Every structure is written in structure tokens, then in C-alpha cells.
């Protein structure tokens, strides 16, 4: 009996026991890939992001370091050895940096790599295998988009069709994440899967019950406690809740507060001059603003522009004809209001009613006009 129990416990070890701190070695073997090919390791370190690199020789590469607690990182491989590019996609995979030796092996490329050697990476490999069918579909969709001509991309029918397929693939992935979390509640990988399950704008009522189903060890971990704090912010910015008040300076340095707009419907719009999707949505916001600004409605823009980029922010406001109030602390992703509202991607918005409560979230495109027509129907 004891042997059977011991064997059962050994089978659970990869999911239950993860060392908190220590040194790691990341070893790779990618076929016969050779210089000038380079491998890059990107991971978070406090509030900053670190990027290490090394040359690949005869398919081999190695990184060494230490962690205070397990962290998720990204391994990227540039065959040309010319450096990472914003315009040229670089193959990448996710893995965990934790005490021990992490092995990345493939007969040829990073795309076919298997990650093993440490508990969390064993768990993560199971998730990657389950996700592969939908990941392949997503890769094919992105290749189709990149291969399209500017004329094709500008057509509404083309973009709508791609959006529909993208959402269908996301739905497939969400099912996989949910199944993995349910089957691996004692693994930290399940916590990261939950973040992907929730998406860029998670709904409290959907993700909180899933989080509650994780083991106490996961919930009490450093990452678990951080996500619990995130959940509190998500709850505070859910539909029906009183919108958290805030104050930031406008383009002239004057303090503007959310409570200044009490008694009006106000769309708090998170955006930035550097954000392509935000700029693409701006004409729609302008259209609705002009249509409803005389019906007790206005917009308050909160920009996540970078430090020392005030001119870019001002130029974008002028060029896009955004004639409503704008605020920013020019701290990029560290924007205090963005952190207060749990913003991890833009564009995002919150429609707030005259009583200060959140009426709707992330209404864009045609949905924005429909929602405004609904809530402003009785306004003079």
C-alpha cells in the first residue's frame, strides 16, 4: 500500500513541488543550426524586461541565471543573426525559468522544439501540445494577413472575415485552457493559463470561480497573490460598480478628475499615439462624440504615451481631431490610471453613467454607437 501511495505521489510531484529560488541553466539543441544564428531570452525582472542573447553554434546554445521565484519567459531564435525586428516575425516559444536544467530540443527549428527538464516546463509542454491544433490555425491566419496587400487589408469584408476566424480560434483555445486548468489545479502553469483564458480584458464573474478552483499552494504563491490583487482591480472596474476616481494632468498641465464629469455619460478611453488599433478606432469615437455630445455625453482620453513623448501625444490628438479632454502622466504602461483600471492592452474603454457607475466596457466599432443610442435615448 505504501509503495502504491508513494508512486502516486511521485506522479504528482511535477505539478505540486516547484522550487521557489535558485540557479537555472537553459540548454538548447536546434538541429545543426549555426552562427550567425542567435538565441534570445526575454523575461521580466521586477518592473523591467530583460533580454539576454547568445550565438548558436552547431545547434547548441546556453543561458545561465538565477530566479527568486519561477517566472515565465520567452525564447526567440533569429536564424539570420541580425537582431530582433518589429517588422520581421521572430520564431518564439514560452518556457519557465526555475531552478534546475531546462532542455530545449528540436531536430530542426524552434517551431518543433520540446521543452523538458524541470517540473513547470513538463506541465507547460502538456499545455502546448493541447494548444497546437489551434496555434497552427492562428499561425496560418497571421501568415494570410501578412501576405495580404494593403488594398486587401483596407477592405471591411476582408478584415471582418479575418476577425471572425480569429475569434473562432480564440474560442477553441479558451476551451483548451479551461480543460487544462481543471486538470492541473496544483500547477503554476494553470495560473498562467487562467490569464490567457481571461484574455486582455477579463471578466470578474468568469475568471474568479476558476481562480478559486486552484490549489492553495498556487493561490498563496507570489504569482497567485499578485493575480488575486489583479482580480480585486477587475472587480472594482466591472459593469455596475462605481468607477474608481482618478486625477491626472491634461495637455496644459491642469489637473482633471473623473468626478469632474459626474452627471454626464463619459467614455473613459485608454489609448496612445503609438497604438495602431487605437488610431484606427479614433474616427469611430469622433463620429459618436459629434453625434451625442449635445446629449449629456463626452469622452475623456487617457493616454499611455511614453515618457518624453508629449509632442507625439499632442500631434495625434490634433491629427485625429480628438476635441475632448485628454490626460496622461506619460509613463507608458506604468500609467497610474491604467494600473488602477487593470489595463494590460489598448484600446480599452469604460462607459460611465451620470451616477459614476460603469455602464459598459470595451464597446468599439458599431457596438459603441448602439450602446450610446440605447443609454442616451431619453436624454434631451
Automatic annotation (TrEMBL):
Q: Major location, coarse class? A: other
Q: Could you tell me the keywords of this UniProt record?
A: Cytochrome c-type biogenesis, Disulfide bond, Redox-active center, Signal
The processes (GO biological process) annotated in the record are: cytochrome complex assembly
Identify the Pfam families for this entry: AhpC-TSA (PF00578), DUF4369 (PF14289)
Pinpoint the Thioredoxin domain residues: 237-380
Report the GO terms under cellular component. cell envelope
Q: Which Gene3D superfamilies does the protein's record reference?
A: Glutaredoxin
Q: Do you know which InterPro entries this protein is assigned to? A: AhpC/TSA (IPR000866), DUF4369 (IPR025380), Thioredoxin-like_sf (IPR036249), Thioredoxin_CS (IPR017937), Thioredoxin_domain (IPR013766), Thioredoxin_ResA/DsbE_sf (IPR050553)
User: Which named protein is this?
Assistant: AhpC/TSA family protein
> Residue span of the signal peptide, if any?
1-19
According to its UniProt record, where is this protein located?
Cell envelope
Amino acid at each position: 500500500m505504501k509503495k502504491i501511495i508513494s508512486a502516486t505521489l511521485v506522479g504528482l510531484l511535477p505539478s505540486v513541488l516547484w522550487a521557489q529560488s535558485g540557479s537555472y541553466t537553459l540548454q538548447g539543441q536546434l538541429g545543426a543550426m549555426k552562427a550567425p544564428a542567435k538565441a534570445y531570452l526575454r523575461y521580466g525582472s521586477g518592473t523591467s524586461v530583460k533580454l539576454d542573447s547568445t550565438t548558436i553554434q552547431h545547434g547548441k546554445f546556453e543561458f545561465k541565471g538565477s530566479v527568486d521565484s519561477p517566472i515565465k519567459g520567452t525564447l526567440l531564435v533569429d536564424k539570420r543573426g541580425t537582431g530582433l525586428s518589429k517588422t520581421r516575425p521572430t520564431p518564439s516559444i514560452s518556457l519557465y525559468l526555475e531552478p534546475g536544467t531546462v532542455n530545449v530540443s528540436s531536430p530542426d527549428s524552434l517551431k518543433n522544439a520540446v521543452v523538458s527538464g524541470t517540473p513547470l516546463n513538463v506541465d507547460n509542454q502538456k499545455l502546448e501540445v493541447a494548444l497546437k491544433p489551434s496555434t497552427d490555425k492562428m499561425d496560418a491566419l497571421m501568415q494570410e494577413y501578412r501576405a495580404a496587400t494593403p488594398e486587401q487589408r483596407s477592405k471591411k469584408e476582408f478584415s471582418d472575415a479575418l476577425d471572425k476566424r480569429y475569434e473562432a480560434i480564440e474560442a477553441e483555445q479558451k476551451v483548451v485552457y479551461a480543460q487544462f486548468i481543471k486538470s492541473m489545479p496544483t500547477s503554476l502553469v494553470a495560473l498562467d493559463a487562467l490569464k490567457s483564458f481571461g484574455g486582455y480584458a477579463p471578466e470578474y464573474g468568469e475568471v474568479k470561480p476558476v481562480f478559486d478552483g486552484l490549489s492553495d499552494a498556487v493561490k498563496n504563491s507570489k504569482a497567485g497573490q499578485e493575480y488575486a490583487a489583479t482580480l480585486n482591480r477587475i472587480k472594482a472596474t466591472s459593469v455596475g460598480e462605481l468607477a474608481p476616481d482618478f486625477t491626472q494632468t491634461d495637455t496644459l498641465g491642469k489637473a482633471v478628475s473623473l468626478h469632474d464629469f459626474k452627471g454626464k455619460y463619459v467614455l473613459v478611453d485608454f489609448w496612445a499615439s503609438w497604438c495602431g488599433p487605437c488610431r484606427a478606432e479614433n474616427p469611430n469615437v469622433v463620429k459618436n462624440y459629434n453625434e451625442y455630445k449635445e446629449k449629456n455625453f463626452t469622452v475623456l482620453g487617457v493616454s499611455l504615451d511614453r515618457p518624453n513623448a508629449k509632442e507625439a501625444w499632442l500631434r495625434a490628438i490634433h491629427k485625429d481631431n480628438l476635441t475632448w479632454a485628454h490626460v496622461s502622466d506619460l509613463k507608458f504602461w506604468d500609467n497610474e490610471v491604467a494600473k488602477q483600471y487593470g489595463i494590460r492592452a489598448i484600446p480599452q474603454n469604460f462607459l460611465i453613467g451620470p451616477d459614476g457607475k460603469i455602464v459598459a466596457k470595451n464597446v468599439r466599432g458599431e457596438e459603441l454607437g448602439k450602446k450610446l443610442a440605447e443609454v442616451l435615448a431619453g436624454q434631451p
